[in-house]
Amino acid sequence: MTTFDDREQAFEAKFAHDAEMQFKAQARCNRMLGLWAAAKMGKSGSKAEDYARSIVTADIEEADHEDVVRKMTADLQGRVTSDEIRKKRAAFLPDAKEQILSEAS
């Protein structure tokens, strides 16, 4: 194997690792967002966890996160705005990334 082949494999491995970490961070962020919304709806315990899982699953429908925003806006029925959900998601994402990175090391 040549040096270029080694470099190519290393870049591919790094890309795959980075993509996996990003996916996990997005899923963790959605879980955190789901638990936040569940609390707003008065859910706790297993009902809150179930709702958080439904938010993680909802994010698979589209490439961006607007599917989650639409679902949560409908579920929260005027308790919070779409913009508040987006802001909360943006606030949770750095924490989610930090948690995933700390678990990986």
TrEMBL record:
Domain of life the protein comes from: Bacteria
Record InterPro entries: ATPase_inh_sub_z, ATPase_inh_sub_z_sf
A Pfam short name: ATPaseInh_sub_z
Protein name: DUF1476 family protein
